[in-house]
Amino acid sequence: MTGTALTGTARRRLVLPILLLVLAALAGCASVPTSSPVQVLRRVGEGDTPVLPPGPVDGSNALDLVRGFVYASGSSPDRHGAARRFLSPEAGGWDDGVGVTVLDEQFDTVYPTTVDPEGDTRTVRIRGTALGKLTPGGWFEAGQAPVQLDVGVVRREGQWRISRLPAGVLVRLSDLRANYRTVKTWFVDPVRGVAVPDLRYLPGSPARAQAARAMELLLAGPSTALQGAATSMLPRGAQLRSNVAVSPEGALIVDLTQVGELDETRRRLLAAQVVLSLGEVSVGRVRLLVDGAPLLADRPDLTRDNVASLIAEPAQAPTVPALVVYGGRVHQVAAGQPDTALPGPVGDGRLDVRSAASSPEGGRIAVVAADGPRVQLMTAGPDGAATPVGLASPSMARPSWAPTGAELWTVLDSTAVARVRFAADGSPQIGRVDAAALTALGPVDDLRLSRDGLRVAAVVRGRLYAGAVARAPDGDVAIRNVRPLRAADLGDVVAADWRAAETVVAVSRGGEGLVSQVSIDGLSWDSVPSSNLTPPLRAVAAAPNRPVLVTDQGGVWSFAGGDLETWRQVVGGVPDAVPLYPG
Question: Which of 129, 24, 131, 128 lies closest to 525 in space, CA to CA?
């Protein structure tokens, strides 16, 4: 089932990087816009007792009854038992297990036709905007679209009840946030052999069932968004040999079966998947068994510390200053200090630099520099001496490094995605990325590899898209599973960057939401305060635990949150500047 987009007046201003929890108040009128920006979902601990929504109010009219049913549908215990109190006996077979349609906050309950005021049967139409669907596998599939749904109601002994409704659940976004928690289910990057997260959503109660549910999500495999990019050490057909249980020593016992033959490397990756996924639901210690025997013979009980080395933590250089390209040169920007040009050709004017990218560890820089009527891609070390990689085009998007620091991506002439791989001796090898699923949508103006290397964020015809990076055993690379993110909310997007593995910051040309933060699955969207910014905006740089940098008509500005929620100028008078962080 389905809902609507937030109005500008309904948006809460976001203080990055922390997303606050919001519980939406329930209302009973036929169409009530409420303030409820998209946020990460709350965590529910073992001691939490959820407050169930109220049942039908005696004497409610048919429109308010249906609205109350939608409000109550956010509570999932007992097969949406709170919502079932709004049903008549003939609707008792309602199938609530086929998925959840997430509505934006404002929706209407109306009569589609003229009604007989004395009649005891009516049709009520639910009308709003859907943000997408929460699948039975626990992942969210974005899909903003109008929704219109008719339900039948009947009056008996003076009370209206729902007598006919389609399968599926319709939940407001605020009710989803109040009753579900966001977790990461962990899978494997088959190229690097590390664990990578996949966003999922779990009902907050009953808390005692969450460990079992987390294992169900893991056994279901990667979400559709990551299929082809991530894999699992659990083959199809793998299952729990028995229900999860707590040992006398306090470890959660997980006994798997039908996992197939596993070498030591795959066993350790499987252990990482299980331990990290259960850690999301507050399980601190896991006794991991296969057919009753320890998965890892040397360590039957496992904690996060035992698998932490397998987490795909991209190389981060928090002490490496941000860089800004302007005036054809690359400059270093440090807090409280004047910006300084980098040494060598990239910073002394011998090259006309248009954009750049610093490697994840900050040791190398890639620059797009003018070469007559064309531009070329070059790389430089700490001394700024630049070497062409052999890639030139009439135009080239700002480059983006893979997390290994051994691969570089860019877009040629807005139509072809190229990658450069660097051998151990530093020699470049140029290849193409199969990006047909992306380029078929139009010219690609910006493209950024995620910080775990499994996804891309791209700007195409003013819209923000996400896709998966699928790597074949023969070395071929393709962008798959391309989907738009919050097209109705973001406006005309001009640039984007990754704030974290699951979060993108996008800047728009104008309008109310100049800067936004979006979750990679499209469920969460927040407008960032824009105080002091002068549109149109041109560029953005983001990174974990770093201030967001944007370029507007006055120069480069920085936003790190705080009580004032204002942007502070970093470099003035450079409306064409391109800021960047390592990555």
Answer: 131
